[in-house]
Amino acid sequence: MKGQIVSLLKKRCPEYVSGEEISQILGVSRTAIWKHIKKLKEDGYRIESHSRIGYRLVHVPDRLFTHELEGLLTGKLIGSYIVYRETVNSTNDLAKELAREGAESGTVVIAEEQTGGKGRMGRKWHSPEGEGLWFSVILRPPISPSEAPKITLVAAVALAKAIRELNGIEAGIKWPNDILISGRKLAGILTEMSAEIDRVNYVIVGIGVNVNLDSEKLAEGLSETATFIEKESCGQVSRLRLLSGILDRFDVLYEEFINGHFSSILSLWKEMSVTINRWVRVTSIAGVDEGIAFDIDAEGALLLMKKDGSMKRVLSGDVTLR
Ligand code: BT5
């Protein structure tokens, strides 16, 4: 109901709409409308009200409310169901819980703040309230578990494309899960999976994008290595538009992936890569290796050519650009 009221007021802005008319259109009492307007004001909307002429919307808060996002999304699958929370421990953990309970493929879990946001291998992900996009997508791809790492690359392409096209920033992809600008980290992806030997139950793609970080509150290490979109684009960025842009692009690319067109996504990945043809150090469970990252193979693995001319194929690990 709150969403319907907001959309009606937006459509008619700058006109006033009377309580009587809203109640007729939406089929509820004027008292109910008044209560919803009061709730909207508590959510941060500014709505002018005059006893004779009615209500007029004058300010929409910078919040990722479900009803705002729904009005922007155009995808078929991703975002068909949205779970919104002010605060969670981690959107990936909540998404996992929901997936275990049977949440549908395409469900998106969004939070304004994470108190226990996480990166790979138990690392922490800084996710303060309203300063970025912290969200997870539940997917149930009909693929074998060995193909799941490709989904991280699909998400990275969606993310980099959205940031480039909407914010005009030359975002680059660092294998396998980082989005960088001028060597600093703008966004990261954490993909988790539940699977049996031959079948994926669900994949959770967790995405964190820094939009307007308060530099003064960054932990010491991060102030040297992290960046955020507003800083890089010298302007205010609508988190809502960026989120819908990322989800829509992910929706299109995910469908291509499921339909067997990973190779074209990989080409886009390579175009936006900041890893290919660079001298890199790769830390993985197998140890530390250095060499030229000369390609990504059809499975999404990093191909490294070492100093002695030998080749190494790396499926997962951390890359440091030299
Ligand atoms: C990642 O891990 O880059 C994956 C980040 C995924 C975060 C999303 S937010 C929504 C969803 N819910 C979650 O709980 N997580 C996902 P990794 O490659 O391991 O990088 C982690 C490292 O990045 C940390 O050890 C820090 O050095 C650095 N870091 C932490 N917070 C950062 C931030 N906001 N911006 C840039 N770097 C950060």
Question: Count of helices?
Answer: 10
Fourth-level CATH superfamily of the largest domain: Bira Bifunctional Protein, Domain 2
The averaged pLDDT comes out at 95
| Uncertain regions spanning at least 5 consecutive residues | none
Number of strands: 14
The order of strands across the largest sheet is 3-4-5-9-8-7-6
CATH topology of the largest domain: BirA Bifunctional Protein, domain 2
Count of the separate structural domains: 3
End-to-end Cα distance, whole Å, is: 54 Å
Shape: elongated
What is the rounded Rg?
22 Å
Description:
The chain is of the alpha+beta class. The model has no long low-confidence stretch (mean pLDDT 95). Helix 2 crosses helix 3, helix 6 (149-167) packs across helix 9 (239-258) and helix 6 (149-167) packs across helix 10. Helix content is 33%, strand content 30%. A hairpin with a 2-residue loop joins strand 8 (184-196) and strand 9. The protein starts with a helix and ends with a strand. The strands form 3 sheets. Strands 3-4-5-9-8-7-6 form a 7-stranded mixed sheet, with helices on both faces. The chain has a 5-stranded antiparallel sheet with strand order 13-12-11-10-14, with no helix packed on it. The chain has helices spanning 2-12, 19-26, 30-42, 66-70, 91-100, 149-167, 220-225, 229-233, 239-258, 262-271, and strands at residues 46-50, 54-59, 81-88, 107-114, 132-139, 172-174, 178-181, 184-196, 199-210, 278-284, 287-296, 302-305, 311-314, 318-321. The radius of gyration is 22 Å and the shape is elongated. The protein folds into 3 domains: 2-59, Orthogonal Bundle (Arc Repressor Mutant, subunit A); 66-271, Bira Bifunctional Protein, Domain 2 (BirA Bifunctional Protein, domain 2), CATH 3.30.930; 278-321, Roll (SH3 type barrels). The protein binds biotinyl-5-AMP (BT5). Biotinyl-5-AMP is lined by residues 90-92, 114, 117-120, 123-127, 134-136, 177-178, 185, 188-190, 206-208, 210, 221-222, 226.
